[in-house]
Every structure is written in structure tokens, then in C-alpha cells.
Amino acid sequence: MNAEKISLEEGKVKPVVDHLNDLLANYHIHYQKLRGCHWNVKGTSFFTLHLKFEELYTAALVTIDELAERILALGKPPISTFKDYIETATLKEIQTIGLKDTLMVKALIEDLATLIKFERELLKITADAGDDGTNDMINRFMQFNEKNTWMLRSFVNED
């Protein structure tokens, strides 16, 4: 399948797919960081953060699947190895074992800022390509991340 099958120009879709794969790699790193935070959070905020981290990693997993499937819908293969994710992603892994709960939250706030930046850039690229389907999907992800940035910043009193 190629982009023409869904009424998009092949040449305009390449930068969309490239940026979708970059975002996919970053979401994989973010997802694993969320899992580590979920597993390793301790302290008086355990119950609150354990549930929030689970909510966030569940959403990230759905996002990962939607990104990969959109890349496929555009007629290209999504990257799919941890080696590719680590090499491609801007986000970096962190050690969550023994990490203070507020430092976990701050690390996730930084991740969300990076993801939002990528998503804003991708919105411009998808608009230029006339790719409203990808644009709508990315806009939805960005809105979720913006809301959760506000919530996490409020949690650590950085609002």
C-alpha cells in the first residue's frame, strides 16, 4: 500500500512518516519510564502516583499502537526494535529504582514537554501534507499530554 491509496501525495507523506517514527520511538522510552515509575514509586504518595502512572502508561501503550498503525496506513513500516527506539528517541531512559517520587514526576513532566514539542512540529508537517487524519490523531495526543503536564506540575507545586 502507498499513500496514494488514501488520497495523499507520496512525496508529502515521507516527512510525516519519518516524524511519526521519531514520535513512536520517544513514546516507547516514555512508556518504559512510566512502567518503571509505577513499579518503583514509594512513600506517602504511593497510592496516588501508582494509579496515575498506570493511567499514563496505559494511555502511552494505546498511543504507541495508534502511531504504528497510522504509519502502516500511510503505507510504510513502523520502526519496531528497542535498538531503533533507543537510537532514534530524544528521550532518555532513567533509573527509577530508588528515585524519589517527586523526581519521578519531574522526569515525566520533562518527557511530556518533549512529546508536546514533537507533536506541535508534527502538526505543521501533517498540515503541509494535507494529512488531516494524522493531524487529528496527533492533536488528540497533544491535548492529553498538555492536560497531564498541568496535573503533574500541580502535584509537585510547579504550576
UniProtKB/TrEMBL annotation:
Which InterPro entries does the record associate with it? DPS_DNA-bd (IPR002177), DPS_DNA-bd_CS (IPR023188), Ferritin-like (IPR012347), Ferritin-like_SF (IPR009078), Ferritin_DPS_dom (IPR008331)
Keyword set includes DNA-binding: yes
The record ties this protein, via Pfam families, to: Ferritin (PF00210)
GO MF annotations for this entry?
DNA binding; ferric iron binding; oxidoreductase activity, acting on metal ions
Keyword tags: DNA-binding
Coiled-coil parts of chain? none
Which SUPFAM superfamilies does UniProt cross-reference here?
Answer: Ferritin-like
Q: What are the Ferritin/DPS domain coordinates in residue numbering? A: 18-157
Family assignment from sequence similarity: Belongs to the Dps family.
Q: What PANTHER family would the database entry show?
A: GENERAL STRESS PROTEIN 20U
What's the protein name? Answer: Starvation-inducible DNA-binding protein
Question: In which organism is this protein found?
Answer: Mucilaginibacter oryzae
